[in-house]
């Protein structure tokens, strides 16, 4: 094929190639604006280096993805089908579809904590369906309007670049911009290699934030060049969560709290049938889904009573009074051996074993009722609870039993400082985070939005959906795992050896 400068085909292809670069530059700016939502979906870095890495990675990685999309789609079309008007139209359509897909992925990541993938397709559809049926007209108009606006911007950008191509070619800033982007790309990978080798988690915890992100792994690369102390690396990233020798160590001075709100009766049942027998015919008790609890009943009761993961359950703590209630008047744990709920006096949180006591529903009182999980081969189980506590009726996402106790103490009884100082859980009403941790039957359970990660002592792990229970194919996020372990062991004080 003759591609000399005088060839009309070559001239059009050259012009389209030049136009394509400017069109891509315009889309890089738009994609950077949309992808900035990923930066706010998770907890922000805590160090200056972490912030610097986040910004240069966001700029370089997003630009790389956008340019790659141009090379794989618009560029070959321009070479095979060099008709400017048609190419500009097809480019606008392809770019709109790509940005719409990116926006959908950002929405899913913000809601669920993971990117689009086929293994979680049903869960993604469920989230989108709930969003649409909640406000169908507004959601449809917003989505349709967003796509139309993006398409209009793509047409304007494409036409403007084509009609002003000669003028745009005179600008020099693309050279500097390209150099800056390449420098950011190389710098971000270099910093990540260093952070991975030195277990600098404020950087490595960002590995899975941006879509299609596969950061360079330091271990093999540096070990190949004898630049990594393998023993030191393994010690730094070693994960130990055996709790046989751990001691529960609370702060010496606990915050004072004088609750003045109405008491809450926390009623649990051995079976779901007993729960339904109690809740039937009482419209005041609203069912709320996604209560995640251990299938081990002792661990579940410990979560509820102490507001702690069962990592701290041992012969000394499981029969003691909750340490977060030194006055012994905030909580009345009947399952620990007491005989009558009325003996709780002015207790503000009253735990009752509904399977061993006759519990009559009084609409003037506040209730939180649930059934212990059925014992099976699974480590954890999802179910629903019933409550007439207004603040607990409209909570989306997963909830653990220690989160319920924490929330009632922090938000209902207004003892947030006491809850923070003595328990490991979330304030479901005021917390903006969707992460949590538990420990049961020798398995570490780490939560992040809808994703649940189960890690066994042998190092094997699995990701499952908290909504539907299906397996999620995703690599293990080691920095998130390390942070979960730190949260789990914050009250642990191992004895000296």
TrEMBL record:
Short name of any one Pfam family annotated for the protein:
DUF3413
Q: Which UniProt keywords apply?
A: Membrane, Transmembrane, Transmembrane helix
Highest taxon of the lineage? Bacteria
Spans through the membrane: 21-40, 52-77, 89-112, 132-156, 176-195
Q: Which residues form the signal peptide?
A: none
Task: Describe the location of the Inner membrane protein YejM N-terminal domain by residue ranges.
Answer: 8-249
Q: Which InterPro entries match?
A: YejM_N
* Designated name of the protein: Inner membrane protein YejM N-terminal domain-containing protein
Species the sequence originates in: Pseudoalteromonas aurantia 208
The upper taxonomy is: Bacteria, Pseudomonadati, Pseudomonadota, Gammaproteobacteria, Alteromonadales
